[in-house]
Amino acid sequence: MTAETTRLRLRVSPGAGRTQVVGRHGDAWKVRVTDAPERGRANEAVLRLLAETLALPRTALTLVSGHGGREKIVELTGVGPALIERRLASAATGEGRGRKERR
Description:
This protein has a single domain, classed as 2-Layer Sandwich (Conserved Hypothetical Protein Mth637, Chain: A), CATH 3.30.1200.10. It is built from 2 helices and 5 strands; from the N terminus they run E-E-E-H-E-E-H. The chain has helices at about 40-55, 80-95; strands spanning about 5-15, 20-25, 30, 60-65, 70-75. Strands 2-3-1-5-4 form a 5-stranded mixed β-sheet, covered by helices on one side. Strand 4 and strand 5 form a beta hairpin. It is globular, with a radius of gyration of 13 Å.
């Protein structure tokens, strides 16, 4: 049996004042990271933010498109789209911090 995979479209703002999930940006999610877009640091910061926000191991996330641009596609293994949407929406509004959500 194969683990569920979901692709997530992102709009990334590197070099921001703080790292956070901002909210929806069209059909994508907007995120900000403090790391500069140099030598893949911002990409890695985006993946760490998503892993923490979605309560997934970092190894469950793969950047599949947009390595050098603001528009990115990340593939997530082991989580479905409904749970991703709930957790990102919760992070964008600042709710649910310090709480664990059931899968």
